[in-house]
Amino acid sequence: MNSWAEKSVLVTGGAGFLGSCVCRKLAERGVSRLIVPRREDFDLRDPSDVQRLFESATPDVVIHLAASVGGIGANKQHPGSFFYDNLMMGALVLEQSRLHSVSKFVGIGSVCSYPKFTPVPFNESDLWNGYPEETNAPYGLAKKMMLVQSQAYREEYGLNAIHLLMVNLYGPGDNFTEESSHVLMALVRRFVEAKEDGADRVVVWGDGSPTREFLFVEDAADGILLAGERYDSPEPVNLGTGKEVSIRTLAELIKESTGFQGEIRWDTTKPNGQPRRCLDVERARNTFGFSAKVDLLEGVKRTVEWYMGCMVGV
Q: 84, 114, 131, 139: which is the annotated catalytic residue?
């Protein structure tokens, strides 16, 4: 796909954290028509709503970002709804993409689909070599089924569907609510609030030993659009930085960035989640030229500044 300028693009989840960034970059690329369905108008778990959406939108390209997602706590609390919501949204949006002969379907998967004890760095060839980490498994497996459906539809119907495996995202505009935020944003909120309240400690789940990989939202959006333009293979592709950091190191970095002076206490009664996460990003680099630009130190600084600005405005 040489240009977005003549394309009608449907972005599910386009009003969300990642979606709004993708839509802004599509507008900068001169997309012909951009369709962003709103939840109050179209329930993507409802077959009739998804059919009605596609009949009204008639898209050339679909970027499927909509998801029910959260951190470890939310995954433990809502395994059933996370599985059902993500399974149904992926299946229905892909089916209508097939029925309406879209020229390209870009599906966004998750690092949570990988087996719990995948060799590091995670290579795409290891995706099926075990069961995902238990707290993330329902969400990760639902996303994995979208990959299976994409490949099956390509084989039987010729649908040009690609699948990107995304690591943890972060950045200005991210979700920082206590109930559903991911680890980085949850830590930013806790340290900022502790500093404002004059607290002498911040309690963090687990023992700090697990590692994670974090991709700045602007980089993620660039990677998605590059894949949409240049990648047309059935094989999944990792989208990340290829760099891992321990939760303990991350907490110290956020503590320093927020100026919090107290101590960090580790609540080892809480789950660690998957022991390590770090992606092999060679396929993305070699096939469509994606490399992340924003390092973690700069990204955390920009995220903390944004969040502290939000707190001032409250």
A: 139
